[in-house]
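anyone seen this seq b4? input:
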Amino acid sequence: MKIIVCIKQVPAKDAPLVIAGNWIKESDIGFEMNEPDSFALEEALRLKEKHGGEVVALSMGPERVKQTIKRSTGERRRPRDSYCGQ
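predicted toks r here
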């Protein structure tokens, strides 16, 4: 069984939001995985342990998304395969 978990990267809860023109100034913000996605990833890893298979974390966005995926999978039982690509 292959389980795919979609992960969204969001500004950290304590991040100060500074408006620069029509957009927020992203250089001063820390980013993290959306909390509900964290629960989904944890459940996917539990299902993997119970039934076998593979867990894949999927996300779209700028280059910094790679670090969010690596951090999220590193904090838990590591999925067998992790892919970060364009």
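The two ends are 25 Å apart (CA to CA). The longest strand covers residues 2-6. kinda curious what u guys think
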